[in-house]
Records
---
Amino acid sequence: MSAGSSPSLKRSNAPRRGAIKSVLVVDDSKLQRKILTLALKRWGFDVFEAASGQEALDLATVQRPDLVLSDWMMPGMSGLELCQRFREIDGEEYCYFILLTSKSEKEEVARGLDSGADDFLTKPVDNNELRARITAGERLVEMQRSMAQANRALSDTLAELQQLYDNIDSDLKEAKKLQQSLVRERFRALPVGDLSLMLRSSGHVGGDLVGFFEAGIRHVGLYALDVSGHGISSALMTARLAGYLSSAAPDQNVALRKNSRGQFVPRPPDEVVAALNDLVLDEMETEHYFTLLLAFVELETGQMVVSQAGHPHPAVQRADGRIEQLGTGGFPVGLLSGVGFERFELKLERGDRILILSDGVTECPGPDGDMLGEEGLTALMQDLAVMRGPAFLEALIWRLTEFNGSEDFPDDVSAILFEYHGLEAI
C-alpha cells in the first residue's frame, strides 16, 4: 500500500478465540507489511494494513484493532507519535501496542513506554518471538478487559446506588417537612402567657416532638417526648404518639376525659403516662421506648401538675432571675410493664417562665467532649434572661452552636418555653 492511499483490509477465514483477533500493521515499507501480514494471517488473525501513522489513526477510528504492530521510524508521523495519539482515542476495549524498532538503548525503550507502548520487538522480526509476544499480550488484554468489565459493572452498581440514595434523600426531605408539620404552631399567645416551641432534628428526621393542646377552658396541656434512636423508625413512632396527644381530635387524646357535663378536662398526668406505657407495650411491635414530660397548666392560677418519665428536668426561671430545675426523674415509657409513674406540682407566678427541653440540649458536647449539663443550662438561661419567646429559643440554638463548635448537633434538640404573665382576663 502506498502512502496516501486508503487503508486496505485483509481478513483470514480462520476464527480466533483469544482476546486478540484483529491486528493493525503499520509500516511505510510494503515488503515489511506483507511479511508480517502473511504470518499473522496464518495464525488466524484479521489483519489491517496502513502505510503511515495518519492512515493508521484514520482506520482505528472506524474499526479499533486489538493489537497494533507499528514501525518506530516512519516519515511524517513516527511510531512513537502514533502510539501517543492512538492512546488519546477513546475506546471501550484495550488495544495492545507493540513497537518495531532497531533501537535497543534503555532511554529509547523508556520513551516508548512513556508514550503508551506495551512491548517492543527488534527488527528484523523473528516470527517465533512475535508469536510469543502476542500470546503474552493476549493474557494482559484479557486481564485488562476483565477488569474493565468489572469496573463497568461496579460503575453501574454505583450509579444505581446513587439513584437509590437520591430517592431516599428526597423522601427524607419530604419526611422532614411532614415531621416538622406535626408542630403546627411554633407560637401561641394565651390570655395568661406566651407559648413558644422549637424542634430541630440532628438528621433529616428524628425522635423528638413537642406540642400543646387545649384541655378544657381552664387548662392547657404541654408535652415533650424523645423516642430512642434516630431516623425513620423513631420519626414514625413520634408521628403515632402525636396522634395520642392530638389537639385537633380531643376525643382521641389519651390525656383528656369528659366530665359529667360532657366537657373535656385533663386526666392526672401520671395516669396518662401509665396508659401510654401499656399502649406501647401491648399494641406497638417496636423496640423503641421514649422519655416524656407531660404537664397541665391551670391558666387562672399558674398551677402546674407534671409527670416526668425519664425526660430532663424542666427549668423554671423566676421573675427575679433565679433558676430552679425541678422534677422526679422517672422511668422511660415503653420499657417495662407495671412501672409506677409519679406527678409533682409547681406554681408559676407573674413574670415566671418554664423551659421544657430534650436531652439534646443538656447533653450537647463541647469540643473537649464535656457536655453542657444542668449547670451550663442555668448559666445560659441567666445570660439570656432578657430574651423572650421565639427569640429566646433562637438564641438558645445559637449559644449551643457556639458551645458545640458546629451547627450539626449529635442529637435532636427540642424545647417548649411557657412565659406566664398572670391573669389578665379569662
---
Amino acid sequence: MNLLIKSARIIDPNSKHHNKIMDIFIKSGRIEKIAKSIKSCKESLEAGKEIEFSDKNLHISTGWMDMHSNFREPGFEYKDDLKTGIKSAIKGGFTSVLLMPQTEPVIDSKSHVEYIKNNTIGSVVDVHTSSSITKKMEGNDLVEMHDINSVNCRTFTDDKKSLQRNEVMKLALLYSKDLDGLIMNYPNDKSIFNNGKMNEGITSTNMGLSGISNISEEIMVDRDINLAKYTEGNLHLSYISTKESVSKIKRGKKEGANITSDVSINNLVMTDEKVKTFDTRYKVLPPLRTKKDNSALIKALKDGTIDVICSDHSPEDEENKRTEFDNAAFGILGLETLFGLLGKHISSDLSLSEIIEKISTNPRRIALKQKLKIEEGEKANFTLFNPKLEWEVTNSDIKSKSRNTPFIGEKLKGKALAIYNNKQFVIID
C-alpha cells in the first residue's frame, strides 16, 4: 500500500525540508519523493493500492518515542497488557515505546525479553523492553547482561525500585561501557525516602501526609554522576523532578560525565497543590513538586540539560487507586495525553522543534542509538499531527484497561492524527 501525504509541514531539523510545507510519497515503507506538489495516481487510488491523506494545519515529524512506559504484561494483565498498551501508544501518536521491566516475573533474562518481542511482532508500534539491572529487581545480583544484550536489549533499569547499592551500580556501569549498553536509574535514596507519599513541604505538612524530600533524589543524582565519571559508563537519570538535581546534572555534563536524563510530563505541568483534595490520581513517583521546580525543569529542557520528556505511563486498577491516599499506588496514565499537555502548558516555553527533539529524536538516539530522518530514501516512520488542535479528553480517548488519569474532561492543545511505521498507516480516531 502506497501513501501520499498532502501539504504537511515537516518538523525535522535534520532534514533539508525542515519547516517547509511539502507533499510526501511513501512507497514500500520508504520515502520515495518529497516535493511541493505530487499528483495522486487515480488508477492506484481507485484500485485501493494508494491512500491520500490531508488535514488542516497538518504537520509531520519522525515517529514519537516514549522512554518510560508500563504495559504490565506479564503478570498484571488486569491492569493492562501488550495489546491495550499498543492501543494507548497509537492514540498518543507514538511509533515506539520502551517498556519498564517491573512485571511478574520481572524482565530479567533473555527469554523474558524475547517474550515481549515475540508477542509484539508485526505491530505498527515498535515495542522495546528494558531488562532489570538486578535479578528480580532485588538490588543485589546483576542480571546476565551480556546474554540479554545479545537479543538487542541495551537498556537496563530497576525503574522505580531504584538501585541502592553503590558497588552494584558501579559494576553495572562498568558493564555498560563494555556492552555499549545504557544504565537507567531513578535517583531515590530509600533510606531518606522513608515510604513518603507526596512532596515534602507546606502542603504535605498541612495535609498530615509523610513527605518525600528533594534531598532523597539529589543525593542519588550526585552518587550516580560520580560513579559514571569514575567508570566512564553510560548513565541515564530517570524522572528528574527538582531544581537542584538540574544544577547537578548540568555540572556533571560540563565535567564530561557520559550522562543523559529525562523528566516526566507530570512533573512539568502539575504541582503538589493538586494533591490538596487527597485525589489519588495525582499520587505519582517522583511526587509532584513546586512551581519553582517545574520552571527549572522546563528551563533545563530548553538549554539541553534534560534530554527527554517521557509519559511515565503507569496503568493502575481501581482497587489500587480508589483507596486512602496513604495506601494508593503511585502512577498516572500518560501516553494518550502527553502531546496535548505539552501543547497546553509548554508550547510557550519550548518551540515545536524542541518538543519533537525531546519526544522523538533524543529518546531514539539515547535508548536505541537510532536516527530517523524525513528525507527521500529513508525508512518511513513518522507521526502526523496538528499542534494547534484543541480537544477535550473523554473516556473513549483512554485505550488502557485502567482509568487512572485526572485529565478526563480537560481541554488540551495538540493532537496526533495518524502514524506510519512498519509499512502500516493508522489514522487515529
---
Amino acid sequence: MTLYLKNANYLDAQTLELRKTHLAVEPGPTGGVAFRDAIPSDSELSTQDKVMDCRDRLVTRSFACGHHHIYSTLARGMPAPPRTPVNFLEVLEYIWWRVDKRLDRDMIAAGALAAALHMAKHGVTFCVDHHSSPYAIEGSLETIARAFEQIGLSHLLCYEISCRDGQGPMEAGLAETDAYLSSGRKGHVGLHASFTVDDDLLEKSVELARKHATGLHVHVAEDLADQEHCLKTYGKRVIERLHAFGVLESPHTILGHCVFLDDIEKKLLRESPVWVVQNVESNQNNNVGATGYTGLTGNVMLGTDGMHSDMLRSAKAAYLVWQNTEGVSPDQMYARFRNVHRFIKTMGAEGDDKNNLVVLDYDTPTEITSENFTGHFIYGLESSHVLSVIAQGKVIVEDRRITTVDEAEILADAREQGLRLWQKLAEA
C-alpha cells in the first residue's frame, strides 16, 4: 500500500528547502518518502493505494512533543482546589497531586485517548509522556500506549516514581517501569524531582535505567524550592546531586525545566549528553519565572508540560518569552522545535521517520521561501492550518477529521470520566 501526495509544496523540515513535487509515502514504522515526477494512473494503482491532492498545501514533517503530562487532560475545567495556592509547592499539593491520586484505569485510558486525539489534530504524531497515578499504577503505561496507538501516535512513556506517597506506591512505580520496559516497550525511568526522591530511590532508578539501556526523565529545578531542599538535605545543588549518581551519563536522559541553575550546574550540563526540555507556558502559569537556555547545552527541545497538546503554540510562546530573556531568533526557536526528532532517534524509537507528515492549509497572503519560512513559522502558522496528518504512512487525520476512531465517542467517554474525577475531587 502506498500513499501518494499529489501536487505537494514540500518543505524539508531540516534544510527548509521548498520543492513542488509528488510524494510517494511508504507505510510502516520505518517507512520513507520518495519524490515522484508523476502519480501512477488509476489503472496502475492498487486497490490499497491512496491519492491525496495537496495542491496549494504545504507538506512537511509532523510534530513531536518532548515533555507532556497527558493525565492532565481530564483536569480542564475541574473544581477549584480547597485553597488558592500561593507558591509552586502548593500548586502541586492542592492541584496536581490531588488529581493524580484520584485517577483510575478508566480515567487514564479516556484521558490518553482524548489527549492523543487532540495531538493528532494539531499535527503531533509522537509524544514523550511523564505519567502519574499513585493509586492506579499497575498497567498504567500499557494502557496509555494502547490508547496512543489506537489513534495512531508513537510514544516514549515513563511512570513518575517518587517517595511522596510512601513505600508502597514507590515500589509499585519501580515495578511498573521494569515490567513495561521488560515487555519490549521503549521509554524512560521516570522520577518526579529531587525534592521527592531520596538517595535510595535515586540509586535504584539509575540502576533500572542502566538495566534497560535507557535514561531518566525527571523535573529539575522547576522552582527554587527544589534547589533549597537539595542544599539543605544533601549539601549540594540538584544537578550536582544527579551528577553524583550518574544520571547525567546517558544521552537518553531528559531533564525538564532547569529554570534555577547556577554556573557550576550549567557547566556540568554542557559537559554531558543529556537533554533539557523547556516548558514556557507551564513555567509562566506556575509563576516560577523564566531562564535562558542558549549555551546551556545543544540538546534543548520543547514540551507542553500537560498545559495542552499544541506544539506550534508552545513554540510561539517560547519564542515570545525567550526573545527577551536570551535574544533567541525564529531560526533558533524552530531548531529547538525540531530537536525532539534528534532525541527520538538517539532512543532508537520507531514511529518518527520521514513518513510522518502534516498537510497544512496555510492561507498566507505573502510568499513562503526557504529564507523566510521561520518567520512564517513564528508569526503565521497556527494549529488551525493543520488539514491532514500522516503517521507512519497512514492518514490519521483527513480534512480535519480523525480517521482512526470515532471522535464523538472518544470525547463523550472523556467527559464521563472527567465528571467522575471531578466528583472525587469534590468529595475530598
